[in-house]
Amino acid sequence: MKNYWILKLNKLLFILIVFPFALNPAFSLSASQRHPYPKGVFNAPMKLPPSFSGSFGEIRGNHFHSGLDYRTNQREGYPVYAVADGYVSRLRVQLGGFGNALYVTHPNGFTSVYAHLQRFSPKISQLVSFYQRKMESFAVDFPASSLEIPVKKGDLIAWSGNSGSSGGPHLHYEIRDTKTEEVINPALFGLPVNDPIEPSITALYMYRLNGQPFNEDTPKQYFEVKGSDGIYHLSGSPVINFSGDVGFGITTFDRQAAGNKNGIYSIELMLDSQVVFFFENDRFSFANTRASNAHIDYPSYLLYGKTIQKAFVEPGNPLNNYKTLVNSGIINLKDDSIHKLKFSVEDIAGNRSILRFEIKYNSKANLSNRKQSSGVKTFKYNEQNIFNTDDIKVVIPKGALYNDMVFTYSKRVFTTGYSDYHQIHNRLTPLHTPYSVSIRAKPALTSQLQNKSLIVNSRGSSQGGTYENGFVRASVSSFDTFHITTDTVAPYVKPINLFNGKTLKGLQKLQLKVWDNLSGIASFKGYIDGQWVLMEYDPKSRTMWHVLDKGLSSGKHVFELKIVDNKQNTKNYKATFIK
Ligand SMILES: [Zn+2]
Question: Which CATH architecture does the domain made up of 52-189 adopt?
Answer without folding.
Answer: Distorted Sandwich (2.70)
